[in-house]
Design brief:
Elements lengths: L29 H9 L7 H14 L34 E3 L7 E3 L19 E3 L5 E2 L8 E3 L4 E5 L5 E6 L7 E7 L2 E3 L13 E5 L6 H4 L15 E7 L5 E7 L1 H4 L10 E7 L10 E2 L1 H4 L10 E2 L5 E7 L5 E7 L10 H16 L1
Parallel strand pairs: 6-17
Antiparallel strand pairs: 1-3, 2-5, 3-4, 6-9, 7-8, 7-10, 10-11, 11-12, 12-16, 13-14, 13-17, 15-16
């Protein structure tokens, strides 16, 4: 499947600032990246947050720019608007990531971060100097640039759906919010973004606000990194866009999966020529963990996903829809079978 040869990670910029070692065909595969997204390594903020608190007491912080058209992330917490964990401050001597408006991506990062390697992979955003002042690493570039514009979201669920994008370069927590009432653009990176990485999103249930959804969760609710579905997208050198939707392996491996999601997701294209359709997830039809696709595959944690190739010149939408029926026992495939049987019988007669 073509998508497996394409690096999948986070967000895009419009001008090639500095080549990265993780190039097309040589970087981590979508499965590798997805596994990194869902591992619990270095995504928890507590050790770094504790260090940040100590630095805060000793050296102060850098203020979030409120006049730059950026999206403030939990501005009333210690991060004060930066796309960092709520209890983590932007301290002197560090890079501080930020969130851009929907459809746009961050255009600033550490020029020395030329490969997808920790800890330099944390160095997205603006530099906070020893005097507590911020500066652009690339002074001639804006804070944010438009993505490739190839992927949007259509919400037909009846309640707002929160798409939470992970921060990379940054701590890879799902902090960048996009609230979708009717439709919205998603930020899709091209080859000029940091290390040719892609955008990765957690898709929350209808009615969950971005304030509640786009934070690191604790597993008590199906929100944030515990949301049921994930998506990823990037545009490659020939103009094709690879768009993936799948189950979140953290959700499927937890007790949260005992309750069926009330919504599904699918990919629709603006015209003919997309490769990989149908690509949809409707748990009321295929059950928990099921995917409708001829090219479905399993990734991190055994979670299933499907990928659609969107040719240059076309666009695609991730469509969120209400389930055809809600099954209180998601493991009861017999109930699903008979439900579909009677629906089909009624249609025929």
């Amino acid at each position: 499947m073509q998508f497996l040869n394409v690096p999948i990670a986070i967000a895009a910029a419009a001008i090639l600032l500095l080549p990265c070692e993780a190039k097309l065909g040589h970087g981590p595969s979508p499965l590798d990246i997805l596994q990194k997204r869902h591992s619990h390594n270095r995504l928890h903020a507590s050790p770094r947050a504790e260090d940040s608190k100590n630095l805060l007491q000793k050296r102060g912080t850098c203020a979030f720019p409120t006049d730059a058209g950026l999206v403030a992330v939990t501005p009333d917490s210690t991060n004060a608007g930066w796309a960092m964990s709520p209890d983590q401050a932007c301290t002197p001597g560090s890079y501080c990531p930020y969130a851009c408006p929907p459809g746009q991506v961050m255009a600033q990062w550490n020029p020395k971060a030329t490969s997808y390697t920790y800890p330099l992979s944390m160095d997205g955003g603006l530099y906070c100097d020893s005097n507590g002042k911020i500066s652009k690493p690339f002074s001639n570039q804006p804070y944010c640039v438009s993505g490739t514009g190839t992927v949007g979201v259509v919400n037909s669920c009846g309640g707002s759906v929160s798409f939470c994008q992970t921060v990379l370069p940054g701590n890879e927590a799902m902090l960048i919010p996009t609230s979708v009432d009717g439709s919205s653009q998603l930020a899709v990176p091209g080859t000029s973004y940091w290390c040719e990485t892609a955008a990765h999103y957690y898709i929350n249930a209808p009615g969950v606000s971005t304030a509640d959804a786009c934070i690191w969760g604790d597993g008590s609710k199906p929100i944030g990194n515990w949301a049921p579905y994930v998506a990823g997208a990037n545009t490659v050198a020939n103009g094709d866009t690879y768009l993936k939707i799948g189950w979140n392996p953290i959700w499927t491996s937890s007790s949260l999966s005992d309750t069926m999601p009330t919504f599904g997701i699918k990919i629709e294209c603006s015209g003919s020529g997309c490769n990989g359709l149908p690509c949809s997830i409707d748990p009321s039809v295929v059950g928990i963990g099921g995917v409708t696709s001829a090219d479905q595959a399993s990734g991190a944690g055994g979670a299933n996903f499907c990928v659609v190739t969107v040719p240059s010149g076309l666009t695609a939408d991730v469509v969120c829809f209400a389930n055809s029926f809600t099954n209180p026992n998601p493991n009861s495939q017999l109930i699903i079978f008979y439900s579909n049987y009677f629906v089909n019988s009624t249609s025929v007669n």
